[in-house]
Amino acid sequence: MKKLIAIDLDGTLLSSHIEISQENVQAIQKAQDAGHIVMICSGRAPEDIKNVLAKTPLSCPIAGSNGTMVVADGKLLSQISINKENVNTVAQILNEKKYPFKVYTSHGIYVASTWTERILAFLEENKEFSNNLSSKEYKFLTEQPKETDTVKIFENIDDVLAKNDLAVQKFFIPTISGKMELISTLEKIEGISITTSGPYNVEIMDVNGNKGNGIKVMAEYFSIPIEDTVAIGDNFNDVPMMDVAGLSIAMENGDPAVKEKADVVTLSNNEHGVAHAIEKYILNNH
Asked: Which pTM does this prediction carry?
């Protein structure tokens, strides 16, 4: 029975050192050799996912920006964008409150030119978070990103929206203090959905944009019945794909509420939990 296995990256396939272990790579290859389709379904942008996979011998279809950009065989199968009016409204709210944020688009990731000053103010306000960062993480987080093929710097959200063929898939906002207040302000906007991929962020997509959509589109493309799908994840942005999948598997290191929702729980991301899940529930489950 051919299955579609959708795997999250951060906290799931990636260890806490942001690496894909040899054990996980081999288990995915075994699943692929057995005829299953393995997809990566992450909050990261598609380009970012490709960069992570490029460090391994793996080749997988992907659903990036929380399932809003679905790509297989080099084709864009689905793109769900936030309408421009909502993009504007969200940006205004974030600017009023001086939140640092990134905008994930069909043209790469746009980062505000005020990123560094805002993130430094954020870290100043949230000592419990900043005190737990390694110096490498602190530097990575506070550095003003450089322009690359995939990262663009913008002054004003209007400059981003002025690009005709550009579509916005996601906002990413680091936040702790005031998080619930921010969420309740954003919830008043019709047509968006709000999620989180960890305790220190908020992510905003179109109301139809989530990982559940990512797995559905991919299942249809590969003609795999939705009940023959498997979703592996650790956090709230994984719940929509876990809800639609035939089998949902949570990581041991996952959020307790996510573990409770899942059909089964595998080992943690530092114990090759993905490999363990593939071996136990897919390869040995004839």
From this structure: 0.89
